[in-house]
Predict the 3D structure of the following.
Amino acid sequence: PQGVVACGSNAHMLDKLGAHTANLQTLLADIFADDATTRIALDHQLGNFTFGLATPEALTALQDHLRANKGRIQELLRGQYVSAADALAAMARGEAVTATHVVVSQDDVATHRDALVAFFQDHADATLVLDATQEMLSLSREDLPATLRRLALTNVNNATRRVGTYFLTNCTALMHLDLEGLRNVTHIGSPFLSGCSGLTNLNLEGLRNVTHIEGNFLSWCAGLTHINLEGLRNVTHIGGNFLSWCAGLTHINLEGL
């Protein structure tokens, strides 16, 4: 609809549109109240393309568009996204799962972990889309399949404000990480992504509201070669060993600091 603006890398515009983004989450929850998978899928899609709404009128136009095309949107996303429960049920029936994204909430990770391990052993290129649901996001290597290569974080209810200690440390298989779901986080615990040697580059734009970073942020990420710190523009405290022992790092954009 007219009035929807693709903000791209324009950080200042993105900050100004924060309130509209929050309104968008409320809108998705209203229209797709009976379909959590679609809400999470849209949060992931909108986060990836960094869409913002320039005016309240644009929000209304988008609302009308989503309501009028609800069934079509669900149909399109159903081919790409599947809930963990549905994917695992299909596997149990011996059916092929063709979706490229498996959706699971933070609350259900432990429940589905063993089955997710089996799924990602057979679907190495699939993405796990994990929706943060609590004020504190705690996620360790033991919570996820050891072979997981692609992880995207979402935050449909906008509740998450802090990242706990040992967040995804030593997840050596992880190669692609989407942090957009951390957009409301202000505090990051220690260590954060330490020892994730499979990461080669990382977009930190999802950390744009972080003010406090504790020690060992991205330490021992030997495979990391490029990093843009512009997403850390609101940080006022950084702990020790920031990017320490990242032997492969050749390009750093310090503009955010």
